Amino acid sequence: MARSRPCRVCGRWFRPDARSGDRQRVCGDGACQRERNRRACAKWRKQNPDYDQHTRLVGRLVNDDPPTQGLIDPLNAINWDVARKEIGLPFVVLVEETGKQLLQWARHAIPA
Q: What would the DSSP string read from start to end of 45-93?
């Protein structure tokens, strides 16, 4: 059983829950739990600063239009107008042309 320890938020002594043992650092008070969660989220956001920006950009880049028939053309799965706006024309042209060459190579390399 874990020994009593001070809460890292409010400083009051508490006895950790037996299920969490030595891992529990904050008492069971609702305000302390919210503060612990706020600190943990802030730490995660500091370690992953580009996560939200990346998720929003991917959401704007991927076309949600369902294919009309058959297989999806991978080059049409990306919204190139958004890509040009976000990362610039020269880089998008390079990526788009590289994708076209790879797609052409794959179509010729794989028998129909």
A: HHH-TTHHHHHHHHHHHB--PPPSSSSPPGGGGB-HHHHHHHH-HHHHH
- The long-range contacts involving 72-77, CB below 8 angstroms and separated by at least 24 positions, are 73/103, 74/99, 74/103, 75/99, 75/100, 75/103
Q: Six-digit token pair at 63?
A: 């076309």
d(CA 105, CA 32): 59
Per residue in 27-66, pLDDT (tens digit) is 999 999 999 999 999 999 999 888 888 778 777 777 666 5
Contact 103, 96 (CB under 8 A): no
Model-level pTM? 0.54
What pLDDT sits at residue 83?
Answer: 81
Q: Let me know: does 32 contact 7? Beta carbons within 8 Å.
A: yes
Look at residues 41, 86, 92, 97 and name the one whose alpha carbon lies nearest to residue 59.
86
